[in-house]
Amino acid sequence: PAEAEAEPPTPAPAGAALLLVEPNPLTQALLRALLQPAWRVETAATEAEARSALGRTRFTAVLADGAGLG
Predict the structure, then answer these.
(1) What is the pTM of this model?
(2) Tell me: the pLDDT tens digits for 39-56?
(3) What CA–CA distance (Å, rounded) separates 44 from 47?
């Protein structure tokens, strides 16, 4: 049987801001490279940094694995 073609991803909304919560700098860099320029990416390495970022910026989405979050 023929394989179904994958649909292209839906682009991020104009001006979309994403908070990436990730302690590993290498993973931060990789994900930033994959997400930009579609998203304006801000990174936080800790829960405290994430809370601070959330207090000063309105984000469209937050990406975190939750392993280091309380």
Answers:
(1) 0.78
(2) 999 999 999 999 999 999
(3) 8
